[in-house]
From TrEMBL:
Pfam families: EamA. Residues 30-161, 173-300 form the EamA domain. Its main location: membrane. It comes from Ostreococcus lucimarinus (strain CCE9901). Belongs to the drug/metabolite transporter (DMT) superfamily. Plant drug/metabolite exporter (P-DME) (TC 2.A.7.4) family. It is a multi-pass membrane protein. The keyword Signal does not apply. Gene3D superfamilies: 1.10.3730.20. InterPro entries: EamA_dom, EmrE-like. One of its GO terms (cellular component) is membrane. It is found in: Membrane. This is DMT family transporter: drug/metabolite. The chain crosses the membrane at residues 20-37, 57-78, 90-108, 114-137, 144-161, 167-185, 197-217, 229-247, 259-277, 283-301. Keywords: Membrane, Transmembrane, Transmembrane helix.
């Protein structure tokens, strides 16, 4: 889930702030600190969704997450006045929300059936799916570098999944389907960004996603405990806090410079999964990560070379 929000923030804040140039080393370190804070919040959100998803339905978890995310955004929007709520792109908001609802539903489902480290590793494929979808729907040129990175990345996925192996769980495929939907959201964001205020994008996406998942959530409603309500409130606020930290990091450091630090999330998720859920990362998961991570970094490196040239 956090990767869809992350992609939206990346597109909406593509240019780093000019203020960062005044004190580059300091700004870089502070930006990295904000980025790590965003990762910590993201892993914490995963823990909450995995924990609550064991007792509540997936649709209910998604519904409560976005309901509280919407409620925590209301004061922010109200502070900006009526203009903050102005929008003339309701259909596009609904399309984004539908993709996000589907992606997060599958993501939460994946967390309930697979180790956190596996889910995190498989979601590293989002940039690879984005390359393919951008070529098909946006007619973007995909050169040999991008195709090589994509193919090697999928090889890493096969190592993690081990189709035909004794540990293979076909249900893990929902995580890849989730990654595909998040990648589709990335492509849609490229069309959307710059045509709507960023806060309006966040608020209406949360609002419409809440409405989309309301019916399936209510038809299988299980009365949450006080603890579960509290965790859902933290989850909703945490999603907005995650976004704030990400925006701060992108205001100080270029997105491409942050790319290598994304993969520390695997270390965080594997550590938390072990400490809280007793999940020991399989050797296939670690080996797959060693294939997926470099393949994505290779694409980032080559893309940076093109920009510098």
């Amino acid at each position: 889930m956090r990767r869809a929000v992350r992609a939206s923030a990346t597109n909406a804040t593509a240019a780093a702030s000019d203020e960062a140039n005044a004190n580059a080393p300091s700004a870089f370190l502070v930006g990295i600190a904000w980025f790590f804070a965003h990762q910590l919040i993201g892993v914490g959100n995963d823990v909450i969704m995995k924990f609550t998803g064991a007792n509540l339905g997936v649709a209910q978890v998604v519904f409560l997450r976005f309901l509280f995310a919407t409620l925590t955004m209301v004061p922010v929007m109200a502070a900006g006045g009526k203009e903050s709520f102005a929008t003339d792109r309701v259909p596009l908001h609904i399309a984004r929300s539908a993709l996000l609802a589907g992606g997060i539903f599958l993501y939460v489902k994946g967390l309930t059936i697979a180790p956190i480290a596996v889910v995190t590793t498989l979601n590293f494929t989002i940039p690879l799916f984005t390359l393919v979808l951008a070529r098909v729907f946006l007619k973007e040129k995909v050169d040999a570098t991008r195709w090589i990175g994509t193919l090697v990345g999928f090889a890493g996925v096969m190592v993690v999944m081990q189709p035909g192996g004794a540990v293979f769980n076909p249900m893990w495929l929902v995580v890849l389907l989730s990654a595909t939907m998040f990648a589709s959201l990335d492509v849609l964001n490229k069309v959307f960004v710059g045509k709507e205020s960023f806060w309006a994008m966040i608020f209406y996406t949360a609002l419409f996603t809440t409405l989309i998942v309301a019916y399936p959530a209510l038809t299988s409603w299980v009365p949450p405990t006080t603890l579960q309500y509290g965790l859902m409130a933290v989850l909703g606020a945490g999603a907005n806090g995650l976004l704030y930290c990400l925006l701060k990091s992108f205001s100080m450091v270029d997105a491409s410079a942050l790319a290598p630090f994304r993969y520390t999330e695997l270390i965080l998720s594997a550590t938390v999964g072990f400490l809280l859920f007793g999940e020991v990362p399989a050797s296939s998961t670690l080996l797959g990560a060693l294939i997926i991570v470099p393949s994505t970094l290779y694409v980032v490196w080559k893309e940076n070379q093109k920009v510098s040239d």
